[in-house]
Amino acid sequence: SVSPTDPHSSSPQMVLMEALASRDYASMGHALASSSAREVHAAMLNACAKGNSGAVQLLLPQASDLSVAQGTIICSRSGHSAELLTLLLGRCDAKGINTSLVQAASGGHIHLVKVLLGHNPAADVLKRALLSSASKGHTAVLALLIPAVVSDEDRRAALVASCANSEMAAAALLLDSLPGPMMDQPLAICASKGQEQIGRCILDQYQIRIVQGDEASRQHARTAWDHSRNIARSKGKSAMVELLTERIDALGLG
Q: What is the pTM of this model?
C-alpha cells in the first residue's frame, strides 16, 4: 500500500501543510509549484500563526496581498519576532499595517510596536492603539505611544480608559501629559468606582496646575472636584468623599 505521506499520492495542500509542520522547506518548495491560491493562503496564515519565518519567506512570492495583510495582523497579535514582521511589512498595505499596530499594542508587544511606529500610522490609528494599551495597562507600550499622540483629547480618552479598568501605572503615565481640565472626567470615574489611589494621583497632578494657574483655573477645579465628590457620595464611596473634601479645603476651594 501507499503511505498517506507519499507526495505522489497526497494532494498539494496535504503535502504543503505536512512540510510546513515539519519545516521541510525543500518539500514545501516542490508543493508550491502545484498549489492553488487558496492553498497558499491557508499555508501563509498557518506559517504566520506559528511564527515560521522560513516558510513565510518561501510563501511570500505566491501569496496574495490579502494573505500578506492577514498574516501581518496574525503575527502582530501573536507577538512573534520583529524579523518576521519586517519580512511581511515589505508587502503589507496601509490598512493591514494600521490594524497590526492596534493588535500589537493591545497585546503589549513592544518589540513589534517599535517596528510598526516606523510606518507612519494615522492619528486615529495611534489613538486606538493608545486606548487599547491604556485599558490593559501595557505601560511600556504606552511610553512609546504617548509622545506620538499629539491630541490632548486622545490622551484624555486613554486616561479615562485606564481609570475605568483600574490600571494605576498606566494612569500615572498619562497624567503627566495632560492639562488640569482634561482630568475632570477621569476624576469623576475614580469617584464613582471608589478608586482612591488613582484619584489621589489625579488630584496631585491637578493641584500642581491649579497652583501654577489663575483664579479661573481655581474656580474650574472647585466645580469639578465638588461634582466628583457628589458622585462619590451618591455611590457610597466614603474614602473618595473624604479625599476630595480634604483637597478642596486644603486649597481654600470650599
A: 0.83
Read off the pLDDT of residues 139-183 as tens digits, 9 standing for 90 and up.
Answer: 999 999 999 998 989 999 999 999 999 898 999 899 888 876 788
The one-letter amino acid at 183? M
Residue keyed to cell 475605568 = 164
Angle at 247 between CA 246 and CA 248, to 5 degrees: 95
- The angle subtended at Cα 146 by Cα 144 and Cα 149, nearest 5°, is 115
Q: Are residues 191 and 226 in contact, defined by beta-carbon separation less than 8 angstroms?
A: no
Separation between Cα atoms, residue 151 and residue 243, nearest integer Å: 30
Cell numbers at 242, concatenated: 473624604
Among 61, 117, 131, 120, smallest CA distance to 91 is for 61
Q: What are the pLDDT digits (tens) for 97-141?
A: 999 999 999 999 999 999 999 999 999 999 999 999 999 999 999
Helices (H), 51-194: 53-59, 65-78, 82-89, 94-107, 110-117, 123-136, 139-145, 152-164, 168-175, 184-193
Rounded to whole angstroms, the Cα distance separating 229 from 245 reads 7
